[in-house]
Amino acid sequence: MSHKPGQREHARALLRDGSLVRLRDLIGAGVSPETIARMVRGGEVVRPARGLYQFAEAVPDARRSIAEASALVPKGVICLTSALEFHDLTLHMPSAIWMAIDRTAWKPKVDYPPIRFVRFSGRVLAEGIKRHRIEGVDVPVFEPAKTIVDCFRYRNKIGLDIALEGLREGLRKRRARPDQLWKFAQSGRAWSVMRPYVEAMVPDGA
Questions:
Q1: Under DSSP, is residue 77 helix (H, G, I), strand (E, B) or coil?
Q2: Which domain holds residue 97?
Q3: Phi and psi dihedrals of 109, rounded to 5?
Q4: Which of 109, 111, 134, 182 could pair with 67 in a Cys bridge, judged by C-beta atoms 3.0 to 4.6 Å apart?
Q5: What are the tens digits of pLDDT across the range 46-67?
Q6: Is 2 a member of any domain?
Q7: How far is it, in rounded angstroms, from Cα 120 to Cα 126?
C-alpha cells in the first residue's frame, strides 16, 4: 500500500498536546498502519501500550498510566488507591492501577500498564463517577467521598492505614463532607465500619 500524502499530518493533528490516541482512531482518520509504523521506527511516535500511540517527546506525567488504562478498558472506573492518588489524598504510590469493573463483566487482559481489577455491583459501580479529560482520554474516576468509602470497603486488600489516610486528608482538605461519606457508605454498607473514625476526626477539625 502506497503512502498517501498528508497521513503524517493527520496523525500529528490527532497526537497534538501529548494526547494518547488509539490505533483504531488513527486508522479511522485515514492514517494507515504502515504510516504509523514508519513514525514509530523513525522515533517520532511511541507506543506506550498495545493499541495506543503518543508523540515521543511528550512530557511524562503521573496521570498518564490511568489515561492508558482507561483507554484500554473504557468501561472501567479508576478506584481505591489510584483514585486517592488522583485526588491528592494519599502519599502512597500504587504499583498497579486499581480499576473497578462490573461484577459480571469479562475481565480484560491488559499487558501494560499493570491493572488490578475489583468487581463492584451495578449500583455501587454507577454512582459517584466524575469524568476527566487526561491526555485526550476520557477517564472515569470515583469522586473523593466515594473513593474513601470504597477504601474502607476494600481495606483488607489495600490496608486500613491507606483508608484512614484518605479519610483524614479528604476531611482536612474539604474534599469530602461527612454527609457525602454517609450517603456512599449507606449504599456500600460500610457506615458501621467508618462511623467511629469519621466521628473521631470531624470534631478535631480534621
A1: strand
A2: 64-201
A3: -100, 115
A4: 134
A5: 877 677 887 877 645 558 889 9
A6: no
A7: 9
